[in-house]
Amino acid sequence: MTRPGQLRARTAVAARAAVVACVLAAGGAAITGCDQAASAAPAIQLGTASIPQPAADGMTDAFLVIQNNGPADRLISARTSDGGRVVFRVPARAGSAAMRTVPDLRIPAGATVRLVPNGPHLLVTGAAPMRGGTVITLTLVFARAGSIPVQADVTNPQTGGSSYFLDWPA
Fold it and tell me: What are φ and ψ of residue 126, in 5° steps?
């Protein structure tokens, strides 16, 4: 027969064991969750960017690759380390060389979007002089992902540096 004192002692031991088990399980889950969050790749990744050296009028384009590994997002603004204004350009209609300015660029979930000469791209005006062979920083601002900087090579078409070949991944 179990005495009342022994029953209370067994119950107390069982309760402490349950608390310890819960703390260990919760701690393990928290550590696992932190580890998964730390190792997860960012939703938006940017490939190598290229900017042809501006002509005499100071206007040029910027090209790069955007990889979206997460939910749909929008590129809502951009800026350069050389100042000026950056706008988004897209073909006026399919197959057309004519371009029009748009307020943002949609970045579909799980998609790769290439900003290229005859497709969507960035138009830079009024920036400080850019010289071929130098590097500037483009900062792209996304509705979900926030601000992401990328290094952009300034190329000089007159010296053979006109390639806008875009490496992926960066």
Answer: 70, 20
pTM greater than the 0.90 cutoff: no
Strand partners for 135? 153
The secondary structure of residue 151, as a DSSP letter, is E
* Interval 62-74: pLDDT, tens: 999 999 999 999 9
CA distance 170 to 154: 16
Q: Residue 72: beta bridge partners? A: none
**Residue 139 and residue 78 in contact, taking contact as beta carbons nearer than 8 Å:** yes
| Count of beta carbons in the 10 Å neighbourhood of residue 43 | 17
Count Cβ atoms below 10 Å from residue 142 Cβ, excluding itself: 21
- Residue ranges with strand state E in 28-104: 44-46, 49-52, 60-62, 64-68, 73-80, 85-91, 99-102
d(CA 122, CA 152): 12
- Contact criterion met (CB below 8 Å) for 41 and 70: no
Tens of pLDDT, residues 7-61: 444 444 444 444 333 433 444 444 344 444 444 678 999 998 999 998 877 899 9
